[in-house]
Amino acid sequence: MIHAQKAGLAIEAQPDTTTCGPTCLHAVYRHFGEEIGLGRIIDEIERLDHGGTLDVFLANHALARGYRATIHTWNLEVFDPTWFSRPDIDLANKLRRQAAFKRRERLSTATVGYLEFLAAGGQLKFGDLNRALLRRLLSSGQPVMTGLSATYLYQAAREWGPDDADDDIRGEPVGHFVVLSGYRRETREVIVADPASPNPRGSQNYAVHIDRVIAAILLGALTYDANLLVIRPCSS
Question: Which segments in the chain show pLDDT lower than 50?
């Protein structure tokens, strides 16, 4: 049986346009009974120079607090599919060699984060993103964080400029973190807890057809997202 949180997952409004990731992590911590201030999480998580963060920095924060963390990735900017073809492939070595050749700022930052993640015992997975995977991950009733394309999720205009104004001509696609908190089998909808407020969907908890969620996650590769982050207490 697939479970769904009927009332949605409790989630605060993100303080600004770049703190969606820490706000999602804060909601998941609270779900597991851990009370830690949102401001503290924001201060402790590494940020990118232009604002925002990466899934791996959220994962590293959780690992440091004693959680288990698994990242399902479809970010081909960072990971080559062949790296996951055999269990004996040294992912850390591949990441180091790639970073030495591709001297790109964001790739370098991500590489440092993933090396820390692997060294701390984090698990990386790569495979087909489909309905079965999402249903399986949500079947326990536990939340799953994801970095995806907000532009596709909301079916909204792309954004441009320092104020992230809607602009269908000059705009660029935008990434975002949300929490997937359940699944409604009868309507094939995923329950989403979204830190954006005010929210384009009218509420911070809403349901979206699973196919749109899958597409939004995959299109997150345009913004260095395209991932599912699963954290669980070590006791679970």
Answer: 1-6
Domain at 203, CATH number: 3.90.70.10
68 is in which domain, residue-wise? 19-233
- Please list, in sequence order, all residues whose beta carbon lies within 8 angstroms of the beta carbon of residue 125, skipping any fewer than 6 positions away: 70, 71, 72, 73, 84
Q: pLDDT per residue over 17-41, tens digit each?
A: 999 999 999 999 999 999 999 999 9
Long-range residue pairs from 119-122, CB within 8 A, at least 24 positions apart, any chain: 119/92, 120/60, 120/63, 120/64, 121/63, 121/68, 122/56, 122/59, 122/60, 122/63, 122/69, 122/70, 122/71
Q: Is residue 1 part of a domain?
A: no
77: left (phi over 0), alpha (psi -120 to 50) or beta: alpha
What's the predicted TM-score (pTM) here? 0.94
